[in-house]
Protein backbone atom coordinates (compact mmCIF):
# COMPACT_ATOMS: atom_id res chain seq x y z
CA UNK A 1 0.00 0.00 0.00
CA UNK A 2 1.45 3.36 -1.01
CA UNK A 3 1.45 5.78 1.93
CA UNK A 4 -1.39 8.21 1.13
CA UNK A 5 0.30 11.22 2.70
CA UNK A 6 2.86 11.58 -0.06
CA UNK A 7 1.12 13.27 -2.96
CA UNK A 8 3.32 15.36 -5.20
CA UNK A 9 6.99 15.75 -5.93
CA UNK A 10 8.12 19.10 -7.30
CA UNK A 11 11.39 20.24 -8.80
CA UNK A 12 12.79 23.74 -8.53
CA UNK A 13 14.29 25.24 -11.68
CA UNK A 14 15.81 28.66 -12.16
CA UNK A 15 12.50 30.10 -13.37
CA UNK A 16 9.70 27.91 -12.13
CA UNK A 17 8.65 24.89 -10.14
CA UNK A 18 7.71 21.91 -12.26
CA UNK A 19 5.37 19.22 -10.99
CA UNK A 20 7.10 16.04 -12.03
CA UNK A 21 4.47 13.53 -11.07
CA UNK A 22 2.51 11.75 -8.44
CA UNK A 23 4.09 9.53 -5.83
CA UNK A 24 4.07 6.06 -7.29
CA UNK A 25 6.02 2.89 -7.77
CA UNK A 26 8.06 4.23 -10.69
CA UNK A 27 10.95 6.64 -10.76
CA UNK A 28 10.32 10.22 -11.93
CA UNK A 29 12.22 11.44 -14.95
CA UNK A 30 13.32 15.05 -15.26
CA UNK A 31 16.23 17.31 -16.05
CA UNK A 32 17.91 18.32 -12.83
CA UNK A 33 19.93 21.47 -12.31
CA UNK A 34 23.65 20.84 -12.80
CA UNK A 35 22.87 17.34 -13.99
CA UNK A 36 23.74 16.29 -17.53
CA UNK A 37 20.98 14.46 -19.34
CA UNK A 38 17.90 12.87 -17.89
CA UNK A 39 17.95 11.98 -14.18
CA UNK A 40 15.71 9.25 -12.83
CA UNK A 41 14.73 10.21 -9.31
CA UNK A 42 13.25 7.70 -6.90
CA UNK A 43 10.24 9.20 -5.07
CA UNK A 44 11.42 7.52 -1.89
CA UNK A 45 14.60 9.58 -2.07
CA UNK A 46 13.19 12.84 -3.37
CA UNK A 47 10.13 13.08 -1.14
CA UNK A 48 10.42 13.87 2.54
CA UNK A 49 7.75 15.00 4.99
CA UNK A 50 6.91 18.30 6.51
CA UNK A 51 4.19 18.63 9.08
CA UNK A 52 1.55 21.28 9.25
CA UNK A 53 -0.08 22.25 12.52
CA UNK A 54 -3.44 22.06 10.77
CA UNK A 55 -2.88 19.00 8.58
CA UNK A 56 -0.73 16.48 10.47
CA UNK A 57 -2.79 13.48 11.56
CA UNK A 58 -1.33 13.28 15.07
CA UNK A 59 -1.63 17.02 15.63
CA UNK A 60 -5.28 16.82 14.57
CA UNK A 61 -6.06 13.67 16.53
CA UNK A 62 -4.84 14.99 19.87
CA UNK A 63 -5.17 18.76 19.41
CA UNK A 64 -1.46 19.41 20.03
CA UNK A 65 1.14 21.67 18.43
CA UNK A 66 3.86 19.15 17.49
CA UNK A 67 3.48 15.47 16.46
CA UNK A 68 5.55 14.39 19.45
CA UNK A 69 4.39 12.06 22.21
CA UNK A 70 6.24 12.02 25.53
CA UNK A 71 6.24 8.33 26.41
CA UNK A 72 4.41 7.15 29.53
CA UNK A 73 7.29 5.33 31.26
CA UNK A 74 7.27 3.58 34.63
CA UNK A 75 8.89 5.46 37.52
CA UNK A 76 9.59 8.29 35.08
CA UNK A 77 6.46 9.90 33.67
CA UNK A 78 4.66 11.58 36.53
CA UNK A 79 2.42 14.65 36.39
CA UNK A 80 5.36 17.09 36.25
CA UNK A 81 6.80 15.51 33.11
CA UNK A 82 3.41 15.08 31.42
CA UNK A 83 2.39 18.66 32.17
CA UNK A 84 5.73 20.07 30.99
CA UNK A 85 5.46 18.12 27.72
CA UNK A 86 1.88 19.29 27.21
CA UNK A 87 2.80 22.91 27.90
CA UNK A 88 5.61 22.58 25.33
CA UNK A 89 3.19 21.59 22.57
CA UNK A 90 3.55 17.80 22.77
CA UNK A 91 1.20 15.14 24.09
CA UNK A 92 2.27 14.40 27.65
CA UNK A 93 1.56 10.95 29.08
CA UNK A 94 1.43 9.86 32.70
CA UNK A 95 2.95 6.39 33.11
CA UNK A 96 0.47 4.38 35.19
CA UNK A 97 2.47 1.15 35.10
CA UNK A 98 4.24 1.93 38.37
CA UNK A 99 1.32 3.60 40.15
CA UNK A 100 -1.26 2.31 42.60
CA UNK A 101 -4.79 3.51 41.82
CA UNK A 102 -4.81 6.30 44.41
CA UNK A 103 -1.41 7.53 43.20
CA UNK A 104 -2.62 7.60 39.59
CA UNK A 105 -5.65 9.67 40.55
CA UNK A 106 -3.41 12.11 42.41
CA UNK A 107 -1.11 12.51 39.41
CA UNK A 108 -4.04 13.09 37.05
CA UNK A 109 -5.52 15.76 39.31
CA UNK A 110 -2.18 17.54 39.72
CA UNK A 111 -1.58 17.43 35.97
CA UNK A 112 -4.98 19.05 35.36
CA UNK A 113 -3.94 21.95 37.58
CA UNK A 114 -0.54 22.28 35.89
CA UNK A 115 -1.71 22.44 32.28
CA UNK A 116 -4.74 23.34 30.20
CA UNK A 117 -3.32 21.43 27.24
CA UNK A 118 -4.19 17.83 26.24
CA UNK A 119 -2.50 15.00 28.14
CA UNK A 120 -3.14 11.30 28.51
CA UNK A 121 -2.26 8.16 30.43
CA UNK A 122 -0.33 5.04 29.42
CA UNK A 123 -1.59 1.82 31.01
CA UNK A 124 -0.01 -1.66 30.61
CA UNK A 125 -2.93 -4.02 30.08
CA UNK A 126 -1.30 -6.71 32.22
CA UNK A 127 -1.54 -4.46 35.28
CA UNK A 128 -3.18 -6.48 38.11
CA UNK A 129 -5.63 -3.69 39.05
CA UNK A 130 -6.47 -2.77 35.46
CA UNK A 131 -10.22 -2.47 36.04
CA UNK A 132 -9.76 -0.03 38.89
CA UNK A 133 -7.35 2.09 36.85
CA UNK A 134 -9.70 2.22 33.88
CA UNK A 135 -12.55 3.39 36.08
CA UNK A 136 -10.32 6.16 37.45
CA UNK A 137 -9.55 7.34 33.92
CA UNK A 138 -13.26 7.56 33.14
CA UNK A 139 -14.09 9.27 36.43
CA UNK A 140 -11.32 11.85 35.96
CA UNK A 141 -12.38 12.63 32.40
CA UNK A 142 -9.21 11.45 30.68
CA UNK A 143 -9.71 11.65 26.90
CA UNK A 144 -6.52 10.00 25.61
CA UNK A 145 -5.24 6.56 26.66
CA UNK A 146 -2.22 4.66 25.38
CA UNK A 147 -2.35 0.93 26.12
CA UNK A 148 0.53 -1.54 26.00
CA UNK A 149 1.63 -5.03 27.06
CA UNK A 150 -1.56 -6.90 26.25
CA UNK A 151 -4.38 -7.57 23.80
CA UNK A 152 -5.80 -4.27 22.46
CA UNK A 153 -9.24 -5.84 22.05
CA UNK A 154 -9.63 -6.22 25.81
CA UNK A 155 -10.29 -2.57 26.69
CA UNK A 156 -10.41 -0.55 23.47
CA UNK A 157 -14.16 -0.90 23.00
CA UNK A 158 -14.87 0.01 26.63
CA UNK A 159 -12.70 3.12 26.35
CA UNK A 160 -14.14 4.19 22.99
CA UNK A 161 -17.69 3.92 24.38
CA UNK A 162 -16.70 6.60 26.88
CA UNK A 163 -15.38 8.96 24.24
CA UNK A 164 -11.71 8.19 24.89
CA UNK A 165 -9.15 8.13 22.07
CA UNK A 166 -7.10 4.93 22.21
CA UNK A 167 -3.59 4.22 20.94
CA UNK A 168 -1.91 0.83 21.37
CA UNK A 169 1.85 0.29 21.56
CA UNK A 170 3.09 -2.61 19.41
CA UNK A 171 6.38 -4.09 18.25
CA UNK A 172 5.10 -6.02 15.22
CA UNK A 173 2.85 -5.77 12.18
CA UNK A 174 0.68 -8.56 13.62
CA UNK A 175 -0.31 -6.55 16.67
CA UNK A 176 -0.55 -3.31 14.71
CA UNK A 177 -3.25 -5.00 12.63
CA UNK A 178 -4.95 -6.28 15.78
CA UNK A 179 -4.92 -2.74 17.14
CA UNK A 180 -6.61 -1.42 14.02
CA UNK A 181 -9.18 -4.23 14.11
CA UNK A 182 -9.89 -3.44 17.76
CA UNK A 183 -10.80 0.13 16.83
CA UNK A 184 -7.68 2.00 17.99
CA UNK A 185 -7.34 5.55 16.71
CA UNK A 186 -3.61 5.16 16.09
CA UNK A 187 -0.76 2.77 16.78
CA UNK A 188 2.73 3.19 18.20
CA UNK A 189 5.23 1.04 16.31
CA UNK A 190 8.14 0.60 18.70
CA UNK A 191 11.44 -0.72 17.43
CA UNK A 192 14.00 -2.94 19.11
CA UNK A 193 16.13 0.07 20.11
CA UNK A 194 13.58 1.20 22.69
CA UNK A 195 14.12 1.04 26.42
CA UNK A 196 11.96 -0.91 28.82
CA UNK A 197 9.73 -3.78 27.71
CA UNK A 198 10.33 -4.79 24.13
CA UNK A 199 9.05 -7.06 21.38
CA UNK A 200 10.21 -10.63 21.01
CA UNK A 201 10.67 -10.16 17.26
CA UNK A 202 13.57 -7.72 17.84
CA UNK A 203 12.60 -5.69 14.75
CA UNK A 204 14.40 -2.36 14.49
CA UNK A 205 12.59 0.94 14.02
CA UNK A 206 14.11 1.38 10.56
CA UNK A 207 12.42 -1.84 9.42
CA UNK A 208 9.26 -1.76 11.53
CA UNK A 209 7.88 1.67 10.58
CA UNK A 210 7.58 1.06 6.80
CA UNK A 211 6.11 -2.39 7.45
CA UNK A 212 3.44 -1.08 9.82
CA UNK A 213 2.70 1.95 7.61
CA UNK A 214 2.09 -0.39 4.69
CA UNK A 215 -0.16 -2.68 6.72
CA UNK A 216 -2.56 -0.31 8.49
CA UNK A 217 -4.75 2.65 7.59
CA UNK A 218 -4.68 4.38 10.97
CA UNK A 219 -1.94 6.90 11.92
CA UNK A 220 1.44 5.43 12.86
CA UNK A 221 3.61 6.84 15.65
CA UNK A 222 7.27 5.78 15.51
CA UNK A 223 9.14 4.89 18.70
CA UNK A 224 12.54 3.47 19.57
CA UNK A 225 15.84 5.26 18.99
CA UNK A 226 14.35 8.74 18.57
CA UNK A 227 15.72 11.64 20.63
CA UNK A 228 16.63 14.40 18.16
CA UNK A 229 15.07 16.40 15.36
CA UNK A 230 17.18 14.56 12.81
CA UNK A 231 15.89 11.21 14.08
CA UNK A 232 12.34 12.55 14.11
CA UNK A 233 12.66 13.58 10.47
CA UNK A 234 14.05 10.15 9.58
CA UNK A 235 11.04 8.50 11.23
CA UNK A 236 8.66 10.72 9.27
CA UNK A 237 10.46 9.86 6.03
CA UNK A 238 9.94 6.18 6.84
CA UNK A 239 6.20 6.86 6.93
CA UNK A 240 5.46 7.79 10.54
CA UNK A 241 2.80 10.42 11.24
CA UNK A 242 4.46 11.33 14.53
CA UNK A 243 7.01 10.12 17.06
CA UNK A 244 6.99 8.89 20.64
CA UNK A 245 10.10 9.85 22.59
CA UNK A 246 11.10 8.21 25.87
CA UNK A 247 14.79 8.27 26.79
CA UNK A 248 15.32 11.95 25.92
CA UNK A 249 12.46 12.94 28.24
CA UNK A 250 13.70 10.53 30.91
CA UNK A 251 16.86 12.65 31.04
CA UNK A 252 14.89 15.82 31.73
CA UNK A 253 14.62 17.97 34.82
CA UNK A 254 10.92 17.12 35.19
CA UNK A 255 11.13 13.33 35.00
CA UNK A 256 10.60 11.34 38.21
CA UNK A 257 13.81 9.33 37.88
CA UNK A 258 16.33 9.45 40.71
CA UNK A 259 19.14 11.93 40.08
CA UNK A 260 21.68 9.05 40.23
CA UNK A 261 19.95 7.36 37.31
CA UNK A 262 19.65 10.58 35.31
CA UNK A 263 23.38 11.18 35.63
CA UNK A 264 24.03 7.56 34.68
CA UNK A 265 22.02 8.01 31.47
CA UNK A 266 24.19 10.95 30.39
CA UNK A 267 27.35 8.86 30.80
CA UNK A 268 26.30 5.85 28.75
CA UNK A 269 28.01 4.80 25.54
CA UNK A 270 27.14 2.57 22.61
CA UNK A 271 26.65 -1.00 23.81
CA UNK A 272 25.93 -0.12 27.44
CA UNK A 273 22.36 -1.50 27.23
CA UNK A 274 21.16 -4.99 26.40
CA UNK A 275 17.87 -6.80 25.89
CA UNK A 276 17.46 -9.14 28.85
CA UNK A 277 14.91 -11.42 30.57
CA UNK A 278 13.81 -12.80 27.21
CA UNK A 279 12.18 -15.86 28.78
CA UNK A 280 9.94 -13.58 30.83
CA UNK A 281 9.16 -10.27 29.12
CA UNK A 282 12.09 -8.88 27.09
CA UNK A 283 13.34 -5.62 28.57
CA UNK A 284 16.25 -3.37 27.59
CA UNK A 285 18.46 -2.70 30.60
CA UNK A 286 21.68 -0.89 31.41
CA UNK A 287 24.51 -3.34 32.00
CA UNK A 288 25.10 -3.35 35.75
CA UNK A 289 25.52 -5.95 38.50
CA UNK A 290 21.87 -7.03 38.32
CA UNK A 291 21.81 -7.24 34.52
CA UNK A 292 25.01 -9.28 34.46
CA UNK A 293 23.51 -11.67 36.99
CA UNK A 294 20.51 -12.10 34.71
CA UNK A 295 22.72 -12.57 31.67
CA UNK A 296 24.81 -15.26 33.36
CA UNK A 297 21.67 -17.11 34.41
CA UNK A 298 20.24 -16.93 30.88
CA UNK A 299 23.54 -18.18 29.40
CA UNK A 300 23.35 -21.16 31.74
CA UNK A 301 19.80 -21.98 30.62
CA UNK A 302 17.85 -20.66 33.59
CA UNK A 303 14.13 -21.38 33.58
CA UNK A 304 11.51 -18.60 33.67
CA UNK A 305 10.88 -19.39 37.34
CA UNK A 306 14.58 -19.09 38.14
CA UNK A 307 14.77 -15.76 36.32
CA UNK A 308 11.70 -14.54 38.20
CA UNK A 309 13.43 -15.41 41.46
CA UNK A 310 16.45 -13.31 40.46
CA UNK A 311 14.19 -10.44 39.40
CA UNK A 312 12.21 -10.52 42.62
CA UNK A 313 9.88 -7.63 43.44
CA UNK A 314 10.45 -3.91 43.26
CA UNK A 315 13.65 -4.18 41.26
CA UNK A 316 12.75 -1.37 38.81
CA UNK A 317 11.71 0.95 41.63
CA UNK A 318 14.95 0.20 43.42
CA UNK A 319 17.03 1.23 40.44
CA UNK A 320 15.05 3.89 38.61
CA UNK A 321 13.24 5.66 41.48
CA UNK A 322 15.52 4.99 44.45
CA UNK A 323 18.82 5.29 42.58
CA UNK A 324 20.52 1.94 43.25
CA UNK A 325 22.73 1.73 40.18
CA UNK A 326 24.13 -1.74 40.85
CA UNK A 327 21.32 -3.95 42.17
CA UNK A 328 18.44 -2.04 40.58
CA UNK A 329 16.74 -2.60 37.24
CA UNK A 330 17.66 0.35 34.98
CA UNK A 331 15.49 0.62 31.87
CA UNK A 332 16.59 2.95 29.07
CA UNK A 333 16.90 2.88 25.27
CA UNK A 334 19.92 2.55 23.02
CA UNK A 335 19.61 6.21 22.07
CA UNK A 336 20.83 7.07 25.57
CA UNK A 337 24.34 6.84 24.13
CA UNK A 338 23.87 10.28 22.51
CA UNK A 339 22.29 11.95 25.55
CA UNK A 340 24.91 13.97 27.40
CA UNK A 341 22.90 16.43 29.48
CA UNK A 342 19.79 16.87 31.61
CA UNK A 343 17.55 19.70 30.41
CA UNK A 344 14.10 21.19 31.00
CA UNK A 345 11.42 19.68 28.77
CA UNK A 346 10.73 23.02 27.10
CA UNK A 347 14.37 23.25 25.98
CA UNK A 348 14.36 19.65 24.76
CA UNK A 349 11.30 20.22 22.59
CA UNK A 350 12.64 23.50 21.20
CA UNK A 351 15.89 21.79 20.19
CA UNK A 352 14.10 18.84 18.56
CA UNK A 353 11.85 21.09 16.48
CA UNK A 354 14.69 23.45 15.56
CA UNK A 355 16.92 20.60 14.38
CA UNK A 356 14.01 19.03 12.49
CA UNK A 357 13.48 22.25 10.52
CA UNK A 358 17.20 22.86 9.93
CA UNK A 359 17.85 19.36 8.61
CA UNK A 360 14.72 19.49 6.46
CA UNK A 361 16.02 22.67 4.79
CA UNK A 362 19.45 21.09 4.34
CA UNK A 363 17.87 18.22 2.45
CA UNK A 364 15.94 20.63 0.25
CA UNK A 365 19.12 22.48 -0.64
CA UNK A 366 20.96 19.25 -1.40
CA UNK A 367 18.26 17.66 -3.56
CA UNK A 368 16.58 20.75 -5.04
CA UNK A 369 13.29 18.99 -4.43
CA UNK A 370 10.33 20.08 -2.32
CA UNK A 371 7.20 18.02 -1.62
CA UNK A 372 3.59 18.83 -1.07
CA UNK A 373 2.22 16.53 1.59
CA UNK A 374 -0.79 16.21 3.83
CA UNK A 375 1.37 15.87 6.96
Outline of this structure?
The chain has 15 helices and 16 strands. The protein has 375 residues and is of the alpha/beta class.
Question: Can you walk through the features of this model?
Answer:
- The chain has 15 helices and 16 strands.
- It has 375 residues and is α/β, with parallel strands linked by helices.
- It has three domains: 42 residues, no CATH class; 218 residues, Aldolase class I (TIM Barrel); 44 residues, no CATH class.
- An eight-stranded parallel beta barrel has the order 5-6-7-8-9-10-12-13, surrounded by six helices.
- Helix 9 links the parallel strand 12 and strand 13.
- Helix 3 runs parallel beside helix 4, helix 9 packs across helix 15 and helix 12 runs antiparallel to helix 13.
SSE map:
Layout: E1 6-12, E2 17-22, E3 28-31, E4 38-41, H1 43-46, H2 57-62, E5 68-70, H3 79-87, E6 91-95, H4 101-114, E7 119-124, H5 130-139, E8 144-148, H6 156-161, E9 165-170, H7 173-182, E10 186-190, E11 196-197, H8 205-215, E12 220-223, H9 229-237, E13 242-245, H10 247-250, H11 259-265, E14 273-276, E15 283-286, H12 289-299, H13 304-311, H14 315-321, H15 345-367, E16 369-373
Parallel strand pairs: 5-6, 5-13, 6-7, 7-8, 8-9, 9-10, 10-12, 12-13
Antiparallel strand pairs: 1-2, 1-16, 3-4, 11-15, 14-15
Helix pairs in contact: 3-4, 9-15, 12-13
Amino acid sequence: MVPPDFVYCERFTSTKVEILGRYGNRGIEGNRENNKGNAKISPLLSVFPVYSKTMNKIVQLFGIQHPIIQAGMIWTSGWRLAAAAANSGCLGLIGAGSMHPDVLREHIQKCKKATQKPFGVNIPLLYPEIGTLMNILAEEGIKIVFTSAGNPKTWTGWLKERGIKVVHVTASVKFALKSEEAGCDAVVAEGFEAGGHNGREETTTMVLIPLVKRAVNIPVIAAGGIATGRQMLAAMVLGADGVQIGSRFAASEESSLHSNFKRKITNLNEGDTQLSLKKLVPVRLIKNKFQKQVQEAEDQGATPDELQTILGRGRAKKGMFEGDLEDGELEIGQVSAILKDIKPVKKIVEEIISEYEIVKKEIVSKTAFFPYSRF
